[in-house]
Amino acid sequence: MTLAESTPALEEEQPRGSTLGRYLAWKGGGAAISLVMVVVLGFFAFRVLPGDPAINLTRGRRVSAAEVERLREELGLNDPLPLQFVSYLGDLLRGDLGVSYVYNRSVGALILEGLGPTVLLTGSAALISIVLGLWLGQKAGWARGSVFDKSQTGLALVFWSVPTFWLGLILLLVFSGGFGWFPSGGMVTAGTDLRGLALVLDVAHHLVLPVLTMVAVVYAQYLMVMRASVLEEMTSDYLTTARAKGLREDLVRTRHAVPNALLPTVTLIFLTIGGLVGGAVTVETVFSWPGLGYLTFQGLSAPDLPLLQGTFVVFSSIVIVMNFVAELVYRVLDPRLRSS
Amino acid sequence: MVSSMVRRVRGAMGVLVAAVLAFGMLVAPAPASAEPAAAPRIKVALTSDIDTFNPFLAILASSTDILRFQYEPLVVWGPDNEVAPGLAESWESSEDARTWTFTIPEGRLWSDGQPLTSDDVAWTFQQVIDDDALQQANGGLVENVESVTAPDPQTVQIQLTAPQASNPGAELPIVPRHVWEGVDAATYANDTDTVGSGPFVIESATTGQSVEMAANPHFWRGAPKVSGLTWVVYRNSDAAVQGLRAGEIDILNGLTPAQFQSLEGQPGITTNSGAGRRYQSIAINPGAIDAEGNPMGDGNPALRDPVLREAIFTAIDRQALLDTVRQGLGVPGQTEVPSVYADYFGFAPGYQAWPFDPAAANQMLDEAGYERGPDGIRLDQDGEPLRLRLMGRNTDASHQQMADFVGPWLADIGIATDVMMVQPNQVNDDSTLGNYDLYFTGWGIGPDPDFQLSINTCASRPNADGSGATSENNWCSPEFDELYAAQHAELDPGRRAELVKEAFSVLYEAAVNMPIYYADTLEAYRSDRFTGFVTQPTEGGVILSQNAYWGLYGAEPVVAEQAGGEGDGGLPAAAWVAIVVAVVAGAVGVLIAIRRRGGADDRE
Fold it and tell me: Which one of A17, A186, A286, B399 is separated from A2 by 20 to 30 angstroms, measured CA to CA?
């Protein structure tokens, strides 16, 4: 029996799986094309940057022209561009992101080093802002026009409009330099050798201000989406049915309206998760958090091409993959998408 | 309805109580581990990036600053930037300035107690000479070195290719052979339990967080009076200022004038405005020429006229820029050598700085035949209006601030300007290729002026594509080259200083680069915790980022650290119990509140 003959039989047996397969292939194909473009762009975009890495790395020190030339040779900057591209592609396929010009270390290792702190910071902030935003959003939407709605929406939008670095610096000025309640930066107290619970508490202590800053600035988007989404459900017939069953208003909201209203926020949440890794440059700079944001920023100065390429490709890939996952989850959550 | 309200209030209260408790727990000072029983460590803010602690590779200023504490060269820069004993206690040069002999005293030890001999020195030099991969940081220092030998354990002989007046034993960090022989020197991270010869050695480092250095008990000048240094990473200086106020760090530098003034007079804090090592200048493109002698770049051809360049500099008020941009904290510019290097600072007899005199500038231009057009803008020799580009870095606020003044000043003498603030790398590219008219620039200058002079010789002209050598000002002259060569081989310090001043004066007179000011380096430290910092130079100098280790090496604690002081020793057990109880109580409160809100009658 050949493969061609067997395939239709399988399809007939599992019609739903096949639709899912086609859906997967379609969305997966889209994601794959995006990934390829990211890889190509990651190489060429940074080649446009001004600045010769070999000259910038040796600037201000006594170096002979021959030495600069040797450095350029060593960094592979003398090879024709297509050749550089091929070697970049080859390395990337082997999972090798290259060696940073400035740090003399593998870009992969540099990224891994900053990944933990960044995810701890952005993850905590995202979790809190999602829970807070969604909770306030559904309350505000349910009681549209009330004092609660107006005050919460207004407050959230004010924070949303505040520049992140400004808010961060103000918090730093007041709660660190002023009251001395929180540390002025970093992730653990330098010069100490903490372990166990003491270490956890120390890190948590350092986390408060940066997380507060991030939450304040972003929770409004969850609040607004959730509020709008609840408003859309408000007039639905199923809510009348629920009320007719004698349910308290609170339960109508939490058991019926909210689960349905949550759907549009799924995409938003997955987009957030995708952006967690690369998305905290400002907060990390204000609070001297040892994460990935600073790495990208630092890469621009040489320019440190492998570092820029590496961070760009990794960050973009995570966003693409998360978007793809969002598509899948959406389909699982919403039966209407499966049937169409 | 009322009961529902009550339930809501109770629920909200529960949440509130839990939140307050959680917040309170985090607000409580973090339990700091017990400080080392002996003298404390100085916590130093580290506000710029570290690349590596491998002395063969480290380029970034923060890394080399830290490594200066760890490895002594043969000779160090003394408290007044003079050549002082390092590994070697004495040295002499042959008459022809090609053979330098250094003597290392007996009994010198590395921080691990191993003997430190001439063999370590010769080995380090040889590694850099032989291995291209180890030349990244200090290749230039061995360029003129023919051979380095160790005839006996206390003697090092450096044979140079060409005569050289500057001490060849300065700068190159000497590493312990017994450590580095066994590792791949080109990739060795050198960040854990390291061995060095200076006052402090690196104990451990956490990327992006901190670097721990321990005092070296075997340091030949005597062990430091503090137990070590903790470098604390800050990624913005405002946060570091708050850290100093809160006592989380003991010293920091690189303050802006505004930050500096905000710390003046604060209890327990002392500020220090130390003479800077950097000149800030405005440069004019006199018509760049490449290594082959062909014109390069797109500089305005009118600027080839020295009279026009002199008039431009005469129209700029250096003191006003220093007062506005740096609140007067610095010294108005003369030659490229900052006032901190007293031996080489200032003009040779017969030279002087351009005065600020717009009337004289206008008169010079009138006499040179630059007539004003109908709109008041002067016309060049081709009858085109004089319109010049003024470039600066968009990452440096002072450039835009200065441009805001320079533009109107030049308009006063009939010259129009187009200000453009661009990326630093764009400035580097354009200045190398001669694609500019005027631009703001500046260099940090080392104690020996040879390098700064060398990049103004005709031999330093770049290739047409910008590769090859780098010329500081895209200018050169035979007269300057002769002076450069003469000072390069002049062994008499007094005579050499005269030649150096003469060379910088000739460069100044060419009107291609006018130093505006030497900004002070602004520092602040906790004088309630540490004292005895030694500045370099001793009069009006800096504590951090010196050319040597004097600043922190001299420091001592103000009082013996008291056991159980503020924030020491961790939380008492009772506090831990209280925290745990509070958290549990809060959680139970929330649970009860939630339970109450849903009753049996709510089931569907």
Answer: A17
